[in-house]
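Protein details
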Amino acid sequence: MRVNTLHLTHEQLVCELRKRPGLIPIDIKDERVVWFDIGDSPLNKSKFYYSINDLLSNRDQAKLFTTDVKALSLMAVLDNTIYPTGFILHMGRCGSTLLAKALAQSCRNIVITEAPPCDKIWKQFTSNWLYYPKATAERLTVYRNLILAMGRKRIAEQSAYFVKFTSYNILFVDFIKSSFPDVPCLFLYRDPMEVLVSWLWHPPPWLKSKESELGAFTAGCPIGKMEGMSDLTYFELFSVQLLKSALNISVEDLAYLNYEYLTPQHYANILLNAFKYTASSNELAQMKPEFRFYSKDDSRTIIFSSDKIKKQQAVTPEIRRCYEQSLIGLYNELECSEKNLARKLLL
C-alpha cells in the first residue's frame, strides 16, 4: 500500500472539503494536521486509529493531506458537521470502550474513540506539557473546529455525534467545556483498586511516557521526580489527578457512572439521563449485543467474562496502601455525589 501526502494551502483545503464529505482530521504531526477521506466508514472499532489503519491498508493507494494547525480556524471546516450529542470521559479500564462501541452500532451515530488529534492538540496548547492551556479565543476556536471537523456528516442517517476521549483529557475538562458549554458529559469510573490491578496486569500504552513531560503533567509532578518512579506510584498519582479533576467540575450537564451499572438493563436509561439521547427499539437491538463481547476485541470472538473477583484477589498490600492513602476518599465522593447516575437508575 502506498500513501501519498500532499500539503494544502487554506484555499486548497476548502476545495477538498467541498468535494469530500468524508475528509476529516486523523492526526497532528510536527505542527501539521493530517487529513484523510474516510468515506462512509462507521469507524466502529475500539480505537479510532484501528479503524483508520484498516482503511489505509485496504486501499491500493491512499491519499493524505496536511495543513497547518491554523487551517482549523477556517469556517469551511464546519461545513456539514454535526454538533456533539455527548462527551465520554473516564478514568480508564471502566467500560468507556464498551459504551462507545455500542453507540457506534447504530448508523445514526458518529462515534470518535480516542482519536490522536484530540490528544495531540494539547501538546500544542501546553507548549509540550509545561502548563495548563489558557483558553484564548484563538485556541478555543481551533479546538472547537477540530472536534466538529471529525464529526462531519457522511451518510444521510447520521444525526448524533459522540466523542470518547482518552482518559487524561479529563484534566482539560474546563477547557473542553469552555469550547462546548452545552454538550452533556459522562464520566465513567470504577473501584480504583481494580483499575490499579488492571493497569499492572496489562500496562496501558501511555505508560511509555511516564518519565516524559506528558508523564509529569498527568502525575502532577515536576519531571525531575519522575525518573525511577515505580509504575504503581505513577498510576496512583495519575488516578488522583483524574478523579480530582472529575470532582472539581461545576457544570450542570455532567453525570458520573460507576462501571458496575453499565449493563444492558440500564443502557437505555444511561443514554437518556447522561446525554438526553433516546434510543429506538431497533437501535437498542443493534447496540446491546456488544455487551456480550470483550470490548477491546474488534473481531467479536472473545466473550466477556467478569474478572472482578480475580482483580480483588490480586490486590497486594502496596496496592491497598495506595488506595487507602490517596484514592478511597475520592472514590467515595463520586459514589455519594448528587451527579451520580446510580441515583436515577435505581429508582
Residues 83-345 form a domain with the Rossmann fold fold (CATH 3.40.50.300). Strands lie at 2-7, 23-29, 32-37, 61-68, 86-90, 109-113, 160-164, 185-189, 254-258. The mean pLDDT is 96.
